């Protein structure tokens, strides 16, 4: 009789964009990051979500969180300057990350 194994933890977070409309405001676009992902040490997905959405005060992210946030903001079509401002890095850093993703064939 085979032994049942425990479910494997998720290795990455998922993210999705919700576009909403409010008649009194411009269309909104928020990114929601799954916080149910486990097994990713050192990743604060709520902090990443806050930075991606520009929720003030912006938390400080570690390097892995910064890169994840940069990927999500790139998908949301923010410019390198906008991303750099939220992450408190140089725009050139964002440009280098994007070039590295392209070389690896990962896109954004």
Strand numbers in spatial order across the main sheet = 1-2
Could you estimate the helical fraction of the residues in percent?
Answer: 40-55%
Structural class: alpha+beta
What's the N-to-C terminus distance? 44 Å
Low-confidence stretches: 1-12
Q: What Rg is obtained from the alpha carbons, in whole angstroms?
A: 16 Å
Please give the largest β-sheet.
2 strands, antiparallel
Number of strands: 2
User: What is the N-to-C succession of helices and strands?
Assistant: EEHHHH
Q: What proportion strand?
A: 5-15%
Number of helices: 4
Shape: globular
The average pLDDT value, as a whole number, equals 77
Features:
single chain; 108 residues; alpha+beta; disordered N terminus
Describe the structure in your own words.
With 108 residues, the protein is of the alpha+beta class. The chain contains four helices and two strands. It has helices at 45-53, 63-75, 80-87, 91-104, and strands at residues 15-20, 28-33. It has a two-stranded antiparallel sheet. Strand 1 and strand 2 form a beta hairpin. Helix 2 packs antiparallel against helix 3 and helix 3 (80-87) packs across helix 4. The longest helix is centred in the last third of the chain and has 14 residues, at 91-104. The radius of gyration is 16 Å and the shape is globular.
In summary, what is this structure?
The protein has helices at 45-53, 63-75, 80-87, 91-104; strands spanning 15-20, 28-33. With 108 residues, the protein is α+β, with helices and mostly antiparallel strands. The longest helix is centred in the C-terminal third of the chain and has 14 residues, at 91-104.
């Amino acid at each position: 009789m085979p032994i049942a194994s425990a479910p494997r933890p998720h290795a990455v977070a998922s993210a999705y964009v919700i576009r909403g409309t409010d008649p009194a405001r411009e269309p909104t676009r928020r990114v929601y990051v799954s916080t149910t992902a486990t097994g990713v040490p050192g990743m604060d997905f709520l902090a990443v979500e806050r930075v991606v959405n520009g929720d003030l005060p912006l938390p400080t992210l570690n390097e892995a969180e910064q890169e994840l946030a940069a990927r999500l903001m790139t998908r949301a079509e923010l410019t390198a300057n906008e991303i750099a401002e939220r992450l408190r890095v140089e725009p050139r850093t964002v440009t280098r990350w994007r070039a590295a993703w392209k070389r690896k064939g990962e896109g954004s």
